[in-house]
Write a structure and sequence with these properties.
By secondary structure, this protein is an all-alpha fold. It has a domain of 139 residues. Helices cover 64% and strands 0% of the residues. Helix 1 packs antiparallel against helix 2, helix 3 packs across helix 11 and helix 6 runs antiparallel to helix 7.
């Protein structure tokens, strides 16, 4: 199987914890939820059905999230200095609150869930883009998913995204500075997430039945 990457984009880490949690509980669907930002166009047809279904899951999550009034409310809390990056920031902030409130949504401890993700990705025997294999190693070795539990982890995630954006768009991005916005409006973001996420969870569950 030959997988062609979109050469105009790098793998971008945003709300990966949410995408993996909302995915159907098999490794290929979970991989698809991450590969959705990497494999584009007709190249997706070369992937197996389960991975393609994971890509579709990623897409419906994004559409629901981007159009939701509560998410728009969260974006309004963020300074206009970040303009078109507000959606990226809310995605990352919400992953923090998912990690923080994990026990409300899952019977599996967060640490156990993350361990399962890392091990299943590393052990996956199918063909994956080589760059994605490299990212899998980094995700596990640096514990990207677990790091969302604390503010420093959020800051590091935003720093990684900023570096990718700076290279891609040939100008400086310093999204990690937006952590100050998270701290200032922490309770408001937390409230928004806890109102929004059960709706998203139900939406994805209904989709999974189709």
């Amino acid at each position: 199987m030959l997988v062609v990457l979109n050469k105009n984009k790098n793998i971008k880490e945003m709300n990966w914890l949410a995408h993996l949690f909302l995915s159907e509980p098999n490794v290929e669907c979970r991989l698809g939820n991450i590969l959705a930002d990497v494999v584009k166009g007709s190249a997706r047809q070369e992937l197996n059905y389960a991975i393609q279904r994971g890509i579709k899951c990623h897409q419906i999550i994004d559409v629901f999230t981007d159009s939701h009034s509560i998410v728009r409310r969260s974006k309004q809390l963020i300074s206009s200095d970040y303009r078109h990056m507000k959606g990226v920031l809310v995605d990352v902030f919400y992953d923090h609150f998912l990690a923080k409130n994990w026990f409300k949504y899952s019977d599996i401890p967060l640490e156990q869930f993350i361990k399962q993700i890392y091990e299943s990705f590393q052990a996956y025997p199918g063909n994956l883009p080589p760059i994605f294999r490299e990212i899998i190693v980094r995700i596990a070795s640096e514990d990207w998913l677990g790091a969302y539990r604390n503010i420093t982890g959020v800051e590091n995630a935003l720093s990684r995204i900023s570096k990718k954006l700076s290279v891609r768009r040939n100008r400086s991005f310093m999204l990690e500075r937006a952590v100050s916005e998270l701290i200032i409006y922490y309770d408001e973001f937390d409230t928004d997430f806890q109102e929004f996420f059960p709706e998203l969870l139900q939406y994805v569950r209904d989709w999974s039945l189709t």
